[in-house]
Amino acid sequence: MEDQMREVVDQAKASFKAGKLKSYEQRCNYLLQIDKFLKEQEQAIRAAQKADVGKTHAEVTISEIMVSRAEVTHCLDMMKSWMSPQKVSKPLTFIGDKTYIQSQPYGVVLLIVPWNYPFYLLFSPLCGAIAAGNCVVIKPSEVSVESEKLVRENLNKYLPRDCFPVVCGGPKETTALLKQRFDYIFFTGATSIGRIVMKAAAEHITPVTLELGGKSPTFIHESSDLQCVANRIIANKAQNAGQACISFDYLLCTKEIQDKLVVAMVKSIETFFGDMQSSESYGRIINERHFDRLVRIKTNTKGTIAIDCGLDKSELFMGLTVVTDVRDDDDAVLQEEIFGPILAIVPVSGLQAAIDFINEREKPLAAYVFSKDKSVIREFEENTSSGAMVANDSIMNMTVSTLPFGGVGESGIGAYHGKFTFDTFSHKRAIMHRKQAMEAVNMKMRYPPFSEATTRRLTSLLFKTQDSTNFVSFQGIGMVLLGLVVVVGALLYRQ
Ligand code: NAD
User: Fold this and answer.
1) What's the maximum distance between 2 C-alpha atoms anywhere in the chain?
2) Is CB count within 10 Å lower at the N or C end of the chain?
């Protein structure tokens, strides 16, 4: 199998070397092909996602298709400026020289995709990798069976296989793939698998982005409008039946708020879904293994099941489940990332106790706070750490392409979305163009024999330190010139 994988990767390397993504026009063409795939395969994507995870019409439209198409458009709109060299400031010593940053593609990227959003989490990084000029080996998740099949059978009708091969399979195939030498690895999945990927990458000193999971906490302050909080929490938690990396994992609030919140959440569920099992707006659990894992959590919790919207293994249906009065760290709901429709509430005495609770645990992918009191939000923001923080909502940060998306600590390494994706897949190469003139001046200062005086002169031109007196930068000169213009202007105006 390793030979087979080597062949695939070697072919992608050859295509990269042949310059198949070198020009702006070639990259645009591949991005447009992705858009074509998303348009032409729309119905097939819906059917695959319905079969895999019962994803609703609205959710497939928004969270798989349109969000991916928007990524294509954003790359097409911005790519020219992202690709152009980025000028940098320099000391006056280099006045005649050019200094800039060149964004260079890494080469061949390995893209490993999870099952929960198998199209968006494939196309979002893929668009940025293409915009940056890379060939990409695509490894969809074997868990989302129908979606994997659709990608395997159709993607290479739109994107050439020699540049963008789709490699399918599970851990065995991915292990063989990870033995190959890639120029970059972009992995989205569980933290435990992220460790395996990072170890494999270390073998070849391959840079990685790891988009991982974790337990995203939420603090609810008593200043909140609890019905609004309940609506937003229930709507988010029900999305893809809670099988989302930035889903609310557990809530922190006082006991009093907890009890009121449960009443508000029951109302939200009734309003949004009525009976959850028959609702068209609610999906299913991905497979029996995950269903059984979630049932185990539900059965073993020592907390109180305050809301239980039902279970039906024959349909892999698990309705929203809210567990209150969770206290012990060894409680099943606090042991692992839930990644399903179970929501735990841990009563705490207030904001500081919530901050302490969060800080005693691994840094999450997202942290949420609900409050109408700005000082509470500020306190939460300044004293916790997570990939992202959202006040009074969730997920919406993902729709803002100027915000980076990624984890910190155990929730991941690196970030993407919008230009961050392009930067992720570009080596930032330092470029300096000097001239062969001024050799006489150079001779004196930088070539042996050295003296204390020449070293002093050279360092004072090159380095600014706390005791620099004659270090001059372009900005410095600019400020002086601006000052002069203002003074002369003022003098002329007075006359
Ligand atoms: P996973 O880690 O099980 O699988 C992800 C990918 O890794 C799949 O393509 C799979 O084939 C491959 N894989 C699985 N076992 C492997 C092994 N032993 N060696 C090499 N490769 C292996 O994750 P999942 O179950 O697909 O997704 C759920 C997890 O992903 C959750 O933890 C969730 O939080 C996380 N996630 C994170 C983000 C994010 O953006 N940070 C997004 C979605 C999901």
Assistant:
1) 90
2) C
Nearest Cα residue to 364 out of 412, 332, 404: 412
Structure confidence at residue 45 (pLDDT) = 98
pLDDT at 383: 98
Give the chain's count of helices (H) and strands (E): 19, 17
Rounded distance between C-alpha atoms, residue 328 and residue 433, angstroms: 62
Report d(CA 213, CA 413) in Å as an integer.
11
Cα distances from 29 to residues 12, 129, 265, 368, in angstroms, run: 18, 14, 47, 40
Architecture of the domain spanning 2-212+418-429: 3-Layer(aba) Sandwich (3.40)
pLDDT digits (tens, 9 = 90+) for 468-491: 766 655 556 666 677 777 777 777
CB 273, CB 279: distance < 8 Å: yes
pLDDT over 70 at 65, yes or no? yes
Where does CATH 3.40.605.10 sit in the chain? 2-212+418-429
- Collapsed DSSP state (helix, strand, coil) of residue 161: coil
Pocket test for ligand 1, best of 5, 110, 193 (most atoms within 8 A of CB): 193
This model's pTM is above 0.90: yes
Paired residues of 370 in beta bridges: 220
Cβ–Cβ under 8 Å, residues 185 and 205:
no
| pLDDT-derived band at 314, boundaries 50, 70, 90 | very high
If we measure between CA atoms, which residue out of 193, 118, 116 comes closest to residue 148?
118
Within 13 Å of residue 478, how many CA atoms lie on the same side as its CB? Answer: 7
Residues 433/97, Cβ–Cβ less than 8 Å: yes
Burial 268-290 (b: 16+ CB within 10 A, else e): bbeebbeebbebeebbbbbbeeb
For ligand 1, whether the C-beta of 118 sits within 6 Å is: no
CATH code, residues 217-399: 3.40.309.10
User: What does 194-254 look like in DSSP terms, one character per residue?
Assistant: HHHHHHHHHHTT--EEEE-----EEEE-TTS-HHHHHHHHHHHHHGGGG-STTS--EEEE-
**Catalytic-labelled residue, pool 64, 71, 148, 211:** 211
- Measure 210 CA to ligand 1 centroid, in angstroms: 10
- Ligand 1 pocket member 337 (CB < 6 A): yes
pLDDT in tens, 80-136: 999 999 999 988 888 889 999 999 999 999 999 999 999 999 999 999 999 999 999
Count the neighbouring beta carbons within 10 Å of the beta carbon of residue 166. Answer: 21
Exposure string for 314-326, b = 16+ CB within 10 A, e = fewer: eebbbbbbbbbbb
